[in-house]
Design goal:
This protein has helices spanning about 15-25, 40-60, 75, 80-85, 110-120, 165-185, 235-240, 265-270, 300-315, 330-340, 350-355, 380-405, 410-420, 430-440, and strands at about 25-30, 35-40, 65, 70, 90-95, 100-105, 130-140, 155-165, 195, 210-215, 220-230, 240-245, 250, 255-260, 290-295, 320, 345-350, 355-360, 370-375, 405-410, 425-430, 445-450, 460, 465, 470-475. It is an alpha+beta fold. The protein has three domains: about 15-270, Bira Bifunctional Protein, Domain 2 (BirA Bifunctional Protein, domain 2, 2-Layer Sandwich), CATH 3.30.930; about 290-395, Rossmann fold (3-Layer(aba) Sandwich); about 405-475, Translation Initiation Factor IF3 (2-Layer Sandwich), CATH 3.30.110.30. The strands form six sheets. Strands 3-7-8-14-11-10-9-22-25-21-20 form an eleven-stranded mixed β-sheet, with helices on both faces. A five-stranded mixed β-sheet has the order 16-15-17-18-19, with helices on both faces. A three-stranded antiparallel β-sheet has the order 4-6-5. The radius of gyration is 25 Å and the shape is globular. The two termini are about 35 Å apart.
């Protein structure tokens, strides 16, 4: 009996995650501390995430651009809250080309300051607005504690940056992008998320208001999966981003930014995976279908592989891979692709060919329960239907898990108990001292104040002060 490649989730969730990311070849550790190499399988998943988001961005009028990774250090000093928030994480270049630089350069931790400088040059009139730009790049934040995908020194992401003529337009843009992220998470990643506003202590440095989508992972902890920020005129005033309005008066712009990173891959792994490995949502999986040929002789091999190629040609609407690896048994391949999370497996052998059928196996339902024989002539239709079923079932399972592990708490004791295993939903006064006390005593933080709120108000679960909104508290990654 071979040893398990990683512990079960109940034995050690963190190590299950660490080992699974490596074994499934999503990523590996780079030689620079805290950095990662995203391997082809992981990068294919990221590309599918990119494409799904990029379609949504362009449909809402955004365009892509590229900006340099180096930022003059003086830029970050212009918005004091921003520099204070990022200063401990900055990587700074002081020598280049063998000479000491006249001004140090910061390796981009995020691009608001550089965007601000350029927008001040490009925006002159109200006719230049709104300016809606998105970047696909990497950023560097010198993290002390790192974890593949979830928190790395360098990570890949998209960051949108927009400028508007009015506060109302900018606020609407901030919430519109929050809706885009929610739609993506639900419909592409089968990930139920809670969209909401961050508390003042949890908001982005330099923002007036920050919003996020929060997801529950398989161990009950929260993961902030995307953010959208309303800056008001903070960055416009710092970088002199002005426009002439239709009355020929000079006005400051109103700006936003929003982003989703490779951290989202970690969310998919931890929210959907099981003790056998990954379970990838069909709409994002690098391979939606894998064909495993079964044969014992050279003649059977030729017969089965020829039929596998015919089958693949009929499934051109899907991402399909035929596992032609020699030296591995079908059982090994079944386990390997289960570990890699491919949504649907097709088993094809001489007996199946003789019976004019194939065996389809769902990844989200391991074992005999997930297997069915399908007539050969109906494979394409069956594959499409099963992939839709898997996508929906994954979302339903994740939503059910979140609901079962979210508790309404009306006292401090109930919150402490709830955050041991999941989320606590509470009426909260939103005061900083209350939030800090909760964090210090429980390790939980306010994840968000959900957009959807019950009518009326209540009293804070901890101190009895008036509470206008409910909040989600949880321990988080």
């Amino acid at each position: 009996m071979t040893a398990r490649p990683f512990p079960t989730r109940s034995e050690d969730f963190n190590e299950w995650y660490n080992q699974l990311v490596l074994k499934a070849e999503l990523a590996d550790y780079a030689p620079v501390r805290g950095c990662m190499v995203v391997r082809p399988y992981g990068w294919a998943l990221w590309e599918n995430i990119q494409q799904a988001l990029d379609r949504r961005f362009k449909a809402t009028g955004h365009v892509n651009a590229g900006f340099p990774m180096f930022i003059p250090a003086s830029f970050l000093e212009r918005e004091k809250e921003h520099v204070a928030g990022f200063k401990p994480e900055l990587a700074v270049v002081t020598i280049a080309g063998g000479e000491e630089l006249a001004e140090p350069l910061v390796v981009r931790p995020t691009s608001e300051t550089l965007i601000g400088h350029m927008y001040a040059k490009w925006i002159q009139s109200y006719q230049d607005l709104p300016l809606l730009i998105n970047l696909w790049n990497s950023v560097v934040r010198w993290e002390k504690r790192t974890k593949l995908f979830l928190r790395t020194t360098e990570f890949f992401w998209q960051e949108g940056h927009t400028a508007h003529a009015t506060a109302e337009e900018a606020e609407a843009e901030t919430l519109r992008m929050l809706d885009v992220y929610t739609d993506f998470a639900v419909n592409e990643a089968a990930l139920p998320v809670i969209p909401g506003e961050k508390s003042q202590s949890e908001k982005f440095a330099g923002a007036r208001r920050s919003y996020a989508i929060e997801a529950m992972m398989g161990d009950g902890r929260a993961l902030q999966s995307a953010t959208s920020h309303y800056f008001g005129q903070n960055f416009a005033e710092a970088f002199d981003i002005k426009y002439l309005d239709d009355h020929n008066a000079l006005q400051y712009c109103w700006t936003t930014s929003w982003g989703l990173s490779t951290r989202f891959i970690g969310a998919i792994v931890m929210a959907h995976g099981d003790d056998q490995g990954l379970i990838l949502p069909p709409r994002l999986a690098p391979y939606q279908v894998v064909v495993v040929p079964i044969y014992r002789s050279d003649d059977e091999r030729r017969l089965v592989l020829e039929e596998a190629d015919k089958l693949t040609s009929e499934l051109v609407d899907y991402r399909v891979w035929v596992d032609r690896r020699e030296g591995h048994s079908p059982g090994y391949k079944f386990n390997d692709w289960e570990m890699r999370g491919v949504p649907l497996r097709i088993e094809l052998g001489p007996r199946d060919i003789a019976a004019s059928q194939v065996i389809l196996a769902r990844r989200d339902m391991p074992g005999a329960a997930g297997k069915q024989a399908v007539p050969r002539t109906g494979v394409a239709a069956a594959v499409g239907e099963l992939l839709r079923e898997v996508q929906a079932a994954m979302y339903d399972r994740a939503l059910r898990f979140r609901e079962e592990n979210t508790r309404e708490a009306s006292s401090y004791a109930e919150l402490k108990e709830a955050v041991e295993t999941g989320f606590a939903s509470v009426w909260w006064c939103e005061e900083a001292d209350c939030e800090q006390e909760i964090k210090d005593s429980t390790g939980a933080t306010s994840r968000c104040l959900p957009i959807e709120q019950p009518e009326g108000g209540g009293v804070c679960f901890r101190d009895g002060r008036p509470a206008a909104r409910k909040a989600i508290f949880a321990r988080a990654y």
